[in-house]
Amino acid sequence: MTPDRAPRSSAESAAHDAARSRPPSYARGVRAGAVMFLILGVILLTLSAVVDMLPAPRSALLGAGIIAVSSAATALVAAQMYRVAPAATAPALAALYLLKVLVLGWFLLFLGAPPWLAPRVFAVTVLVCLVLALAGFTVLTRGVTRQDAPEPAPHAASSAVEHAHDDAAAAPSVPPARDSSGGRAGHDRPTHERRTP
Fold first, then answer.
1. In Å, what is the CA distance from 140 to each residue of 11, 47, 83?
2. Mean pLDDT along residues 72-98
3. CA–CA distance, 43 with 76 (Å, rounded to integer)
4. DSSP label at residue 110
5. Cα separation of 25 and 143, whole Å?
6. 41-79 burial string, b = 16+ CB within 10 Å, else e?
7. The pLDDT of residue 128 is above 60
8. 3-state helix, strand, coil in the chain (%, to 5)
9. How far apart, in whole angstroms, are the C-alpha atoms of residue 176 and residue 5?
10. Helices and strands, counts by H and E, the chain
11. Closest Cα partner for 130 from 77, 50, 63?
12. What is the helix (H) or strand (E) element at residue 134, kind and residue range?
């Protein structure tokens, strides 16, 4: 132990050990699942672009592929940033959202909708996939929030009571207030000190 480092208290040691033993909020399975969905989305987009089929299933493949790629990218960035730099997770997700808008806008402006696109099937597929993705994100977020909630120390309540008692005992006593005539204020003045007319 170096002289400039103070020894840890038992509470700090216990909290540090608990934090080290706790698994990371975004486990490896979440990142692996996001990569798998990213690959699935790329396959769906490739099938919709390359394979010649009826417009309805082709449009459904396109919609599902877009949502799979978008959702998987969001989950992957959130998981990786939360693991590496939790404070930068929100800015990274905002930057990813901006990137998604720019890429989709570029496709719509410069390439346009493909001639085989069935708009109604595409829209319904996108909405259904978005609802499923949001439900998945909700489950993931609740699991992470539950896992990251700080666990109260078993002696925290008794420690707080002891500190309050110690603080009250150490507080200086305040003398009673005096009025301008030098006696005690108000009703605290003894009866024999009261002036008679």
1. 30, 29, 15
2. 89
3. 18
4. I
5. 8
6. beebbeebeeeeeeeeebbbbbbbbbbbbbbbbbbbbbb
7. yes
8. 70, 0, 25
9. 46
10. 6, 0
11. 63
12. helix 119-148
Residues 6+ positions from 42 with CB-CB distance below 8 Å: 65, 69
Measured in degrees and rounded to the nearest 5, phi and psi for residue 196 equal -105, 145
Q: Token digits for 181?
A: 């005539």
Residue 122 structure tokens: 């595409």
**Could you count the other beta carbons within 10 Å of the beta carbon of residue 99?**
12
Residue 184, helix vs strand vs coil: strand
**What does residue 86 show for φ and ψ, rounded to 5 degrees?**
-55, -35
Buried b (16+ CB within 10 A) or exposed e, 142-160: eebeeeeeeeeeeeeeeee
Q: Give the Cα separation of 92 and 87 in Å (integer).
A: 10
User: Mapping DSSP to helix (H, G, I), strand (E, B) and coil, where does residue 178 land?
Assistant: strand
- Contacts of 158-163 with CB under 8 Å at 24 or more apart are 159/11
Q: What is the end-to-end Cα distance of the chain in Å, rounded? A: 78
pTM for this entry: 0.60
User: To which residue do tokens 């925290």 refer?
Assistant: 156
Helix (H, G, I), strand (E, B) or coil at 131: helix
* Mean pLDDT along residues 109-137: 91
Token reading at 47? 């099938």
Cα 47 to the chain's mean position, in Å? 36
